[in-house]
Amino acid sequence: MRNASVLCLGSARFHRMHYYDWGDADNPRVLICVHGLTRTGRDFDYLATALQRDYRVVCPDVAGRGRSDWLAAKSDYGYAQYAADMTTLIARVTAGVERTIDWIGTSMGALIGIILASRNGSPIRKLVLNDAGMLVPKAALERLGRYVGLDPRFATFDELETHVKHVSSPFGPLTDEQWRHLTLHAAKQFDDGSWGMGYDPAIRAPFEGELKDVDLSAYWDAVRATTLIVRGARSDILLKETAQAMTSRGPGATLVEIEGVGHAPMLMSGDQIDVVRRFLLDHAQHQPST
């Protein structure tokens, strides 16, 4: 794994977006993996390890998370900025070389993927949407708003890990090693020795005020990439009826449900990784129309 960053532009100033780069840097096949709301690019370590022989795997920390800069204008935390930053990243990894771009997005990363894949001339060839789709219900946003950006502090790392396990219990059954991995790479130790989450609390800005359903159905209908939807069977972010509707409109996605998991499958177990691998490496699947 290599560490790198790309310079992106916000409304107030430039900022650095950090990313983790796996596999052969000259591989013409690039897989971009984008994490969920409070997470980091290190969520994809297990998946990237499994796919790095087939792809150059690029896993950014979205602005305000992980090792990326926090945004100077807190109102920039939203999908317009995130999509612009990812476009800059795509330009970096395709510079001067003809490459194919495939995309895996978990939750927020899935919504960014839908937005980018809906645009005319999008370079995204295959799209994996991990537990988010064309409609995110208001009730689910209200649940997220109850903990995002509240910035709790804990005396020890173990206490923080217990908190992460509680808040993230819908991720489903994970090993102790996986929980520690997810906690460690999203954590920050402060000057007073306490532990907390390592993201900018201002990412909660979109959750302030009256919340409404997030409706991306018009974007979805414009997507032409070959698409796989991975849904946690207990998810409240991607409802079953929404996922099923997405199989018969837009690009007509393939749907796979993961039993015993809510929001969201973490793509760390062998069976979940195999679902994604088979989809990405199935060369018989149709190519997106132009």
Rg computed from alpha carbons, rounded to a whole number of angstroms: 18 Å
Q: What is the CATH homology-level superfamily of the domain at 2-134 and 214-281?
A: Alpha/Beta hydrolase fold, catalytic domain
CATH architecture of the domain at 2-134 and 214-281: 3-Layer(aba) Sandwich
The main β sheet shows up as:
8 strands, mixed
Low-confidence segments, given as residue ranges, are: 286-290
What is the share of helical residues?
25-40%
Count every helix, treating DSSP H or I runs of 4 or more residues as helices: 9
Order of helices and strands: EEEHEHEHEEHHHEEEHEHEH
Secondary structure: number of strands? 12
Strand content: 15-25%
Side by side, the strands of the main sheet go 1-2-4-3-5-6-11-12
General form? globular
> Helices and strands: which structural class?
alpha/beta
CATH topology of the domain at 2-134 and 214-281: Rossmann fold
The CATH class of the domain at 2-134 and 214-281 turns out to be Alpha Beta
Question: What is the terminal separation in angstroms?
Answer: 34 Å
Mean pLDDT: 95
Question: How would you characterize the overall build of this protein?
Answer:
There is one protein chain. This protein has 290 residues and is α/β, with parallel strands linked by helices. The protein has a domain at 2-134 and 214-281: Alpha/Beta hydrolase fold, catalytic domain (Rossmann fold). The chain is built from nine helices and twelve strands. It has helices at 45-51, 79-93, 108-117, 138-145, 157-167, 176-184, 217-222, 240-246, 270-281, and strands at 2-9, 14-22, 29-34, 56-60, 100-106, 124-130, 135-136, 187-189, 195-197, 214-215, 226-232, 254-258. The strands form three sheets. The chain has an eight-stranded mixed beta sheet with strand order 1-2-4-3-5-6-11-12, with helices on both faces. Strand 5, helix 3 and strand 6 (124-130) form a beta-alpha-beta unit. Helix 2 packs across helix 3 (108-117). The longest helix is centred in the first third of the chain and has 15 residues, at 79-93. The two termini are 34 Å apart. Mean pLDDT is 95; it is low at 286-290.
